[in-house]
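Cross-posted from the bioinformatics board.
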Amino acid sequence: MLYRENGQFKSTYASDQQMLPILQDRIFMAGLLLFAFVAVPMLASDYLFLSLLIPFLILALAAIGLNLLVGYCGQISIGHAAFMSVGAYAAYNLALRVPQLNFLVVLVLAGLIAAAVGILFGIPSLRIKGLYLAVATLAAQFFTDWLFARVKWFTNYSSSGSVSTAPIEMFGWKIDTPAEKYLFVLGVLVGLTLVARNLVRSHIGRAWMAMRDMDVAAEVIGIRPVYAKLTAFAVSSFYVGVAGALWGFIYLGAWEPLAFNLTLSLNLLFMIIIGGMGSLLGSYFGAAFIVALPILLDQVPNLLGVSMSTATASHLASMIFGGLIVFFLIVEPHGLARLWAVGKEKLRLWPFPH
Amino acid sequence: MKAKFALLAVSAAVATIVSASALAQAKEQFFPVLSYRTGAYAPNGIPFANGYVDYLKLVNARDGGINGVKITFEECETGYATDKGVECYERLKGKGPTGATAFHPLSTGITFAVTDKSFNDHIPIITGGYGRADSVDGTVFGWNFPLGGTYWDAADMLIQHIGKKEGGLANLKGKKIALVYHDSPYGKEPIALLELRAKMHGYELLLLPVTHPGVEQKATWLQIRQQRPDYVFLWGWGVMNSTALKEAVATGYPREKMYGVWWSGAEPDVSPVGESAKGYSSLVFQAPAGRGQVHKDMIKYVYDKGQGTGKKEEIGEVLYNRGMTAALMTVEAVKRAQIKYGKKPLKGEEVRWGLENLAIDKAAIKRLGFEGFMTPVSTTCVNHSGEATGGIHTWDGKKWVVSKDHYEADQQIIKPMIRASAEKYATEKKVTRRDCAKEAG
Amino acid sequence: MKKNWPVLLLGAVLLIGLVLPLVTGAAPGGFYVEVLLGGLMSGVLYSLVAIGFALIFKASGVFNFAQGSMVLFAALAVARMAEAMPLWLAIVLGTVIMIALAWVIERLVLRPLVNQEGVALLMATLGVTYFLDGFGQTLWGSDIYKIDLGIAKEPVMVLDKVFKGGILVNKEDFVAAFVAALLVAGLVLFFQKTATGRALRAVADDHQAAQSIGIPLNRIWMIVWSVAGFVALVAGVIWGSQLGVQFSLSQVALKALPVVILGGFTSIAGAIFGGLIIGVGEKMAEVFLGPVLVKAFDLAGGGLENWFAYVLALLFLLVRPEGLFGERNIDRV
């Protein structure tokens, strides 16, 4: 009843092409942004910021990046944490060696460097397809792990191989309280989501999707696979690289190459599969799910007042996590985003379904 | 974005329940416990965590808490992963009436990550025998306490030991020493000191990293077989140690020439190799295996009442004792701070004062039932580590045998390194140094 | 045949890399043979895990990430049961457990996911991985356990007349290689000579055609997963006896991934040769190339073997996108 677009006519091309064509959606989005930017910083506790919200936002950004590649362009990558680490180390070195750079510039440059590395590791995709490519992307994962652990320059000759970042300051704004960190990450995420939303609606996004649906057919209708695949790798790595820089600077503060290991890559892949491939919204859902689930599972026994050893609890959590993933894949292979879409469709007809 | 609302709601609920239970507590001191009982390092993580938790239980059961202030604690599973460790830290830091007492991150990686946070949170981070070597400098690392020694101390003592075996440090000239290390901040810490010493004494240092978790060492040991180093230093953790010993057996490298750091010399490291590991030695950091007065108390007050965390037979293992010692030092710091601030639950800042004024002497060790298990520790605002001493113990195929040798790290060499490294950290992170003299006054 | 030159080129480069240390005298002959043997022995173990991958992919198109966890699970089961009974009985019971596990996976995971995309199936097996890791450790514990095959661990010196310093070999390694060879021979016989084996190959060729002539797909899948479970058990027992049974076993199995892409997802022969190539390649790279790189670039230690396998596999794929023995796909619109 509330969610109905009757009477909302599109009389110009501009209104036909806007991102949220339905008035209710626009109101909802505005409300949500208001909530996220104003209400959350006032309400949330430090723990909520540092352990749930900030990782959620950063990983949502990384998931969007991976989704652009896997969900939109159909090139599977199991090694995307590699590009996160490239972004993180690039940002570290930029901030260290050119201290007068604004942090936003550092972020963009880190993203660009990650994009360049992404293109390099995307080249095999021109010849290798499907699961072969997926496993081949692991080369990026293990190579960067090794590179950053071994080449001393990247870690500024740190004796332990671990790096730690200086506090972030830009335009005289020192980002150090949890709420400030949250707001900064949220700003970056919202901005980049907007860009992504528009990218996938543009000709480049359509080229990616054509490539995904059938690469030979796409080539026949005049889409150059080199261009489509490599841009997908580049844009995807840019997003992931920025996310990596944020992960290092804002979430961890100090890290070693192990922080960007295979588990993180796999988690990113889980996010987009559970959230929904080929859906930006799905990336958010997936990130929320993967970030929150283990933490919740960890705390359930405590909340219920059941005393069990942390080992049993974490084994159980691992089992439930695995089980839930299989369950989701079986019940809703198109992810949480699909559930959302179905819900919206139902809402449109409500309360008269016929 | 419905999920986000749900998430918020659920976490808000979690937060409320937690804070509600916090209000109900009164005279309680909260000890956060970061442990790993799962994953690749579980065999070593379990006994340490058991020892730590058991000692806290013992203090409650035997003494009724710390001067009447009950100890409460909560474990959080880190799995030795940095991001999980950071989450655990955030989860536990605010619990209890006065917040967390002090953290033992139990991983060098987690130590690095939480060190940054300690400047804002004002909670001490105790890294007994691990962590960053430069954090001895209390004027820069205001919240880190590498009590009892760092990896630079450890490497220094090992060099002294083999120097003694060779009949003087000068005889190390032309020798070849291989460092087989866990490829992580933990394993890399000693390199700086070993390189410096190599320049001083003219031995050749061979660096052989082993990737986490350390079960792939064939190539490493082939290199050792090719290069035939005079000594092998083992800087491993968990399954890496036993694998290294197995490969040493397989490539015929004499175990008598292998020396481990104090984290590479516990029962889980040698028992899978058993008899073949005979002759392998490692450093012992304050607490070797065995049982003393405190273990009798432990059995009487905790295990006989069915409150024990682990198995009764495992009391007194190397890592169990080390966990107990770690707990003891935290408890003693709280006791010390209570003298200044009163017998009430203390904040992290107050506990720090206790940690900076630790004075556990021989008499105190005896009184606490730790005689023979630890050496005296005394700290200051400037020196957060205290005396770094250690011995050597050797596996005879069945048990660890402690030798008489006793070493003290050469601070003449280490002090300047600490100063330089801490200085670099301070400039990189824009930390302003504390003025210890002023704080004392 | 014009297209063959990149393959030849790569082969030539690898061959040169292989003999270079010997020719330049960077390694004495005996040591060189030792490295070669060490590589082959690691390779045999990689092959064992890779065979499990290839079997399942061939029959059901599932890229089974859980193979490593199955190795761990099987090894844990055998090690813990062997504490209370003779080893052979533990192995038999372990096999039964693995078959039961295969049945459960087929029923609860694979059947409901029929006809899903490859990546969804891959993720499902990752879910299985998490489940098995947690389940195995809850059930059997997370300490280090021993499997004792009763083979001496002290090395033996052989050929000390031919090479200076002789060659150190381990009996254990040879037993492992022998068992692996036996297993492969058994598998080949099973696939070539039995009715089930033929049905299996038919399914691998074309699911629908096989189904239309009355081959029960579900049963075949179940059998394949059981066989893969058994292979995992053998790998787990051998590996466990060498390294100790512990959680990390499941991570070593990651080394089998480059092997399967190098060898081709569907080929058993590919898994065997791929395993050997990678085993030898990475050990050679670590021992001979590593120190050179460390000197040249002032690196903080070697450790090339972590990525060398993947880069090697990637190079292979660039010249032969379907792997060494994989089937060539022809795309049609």
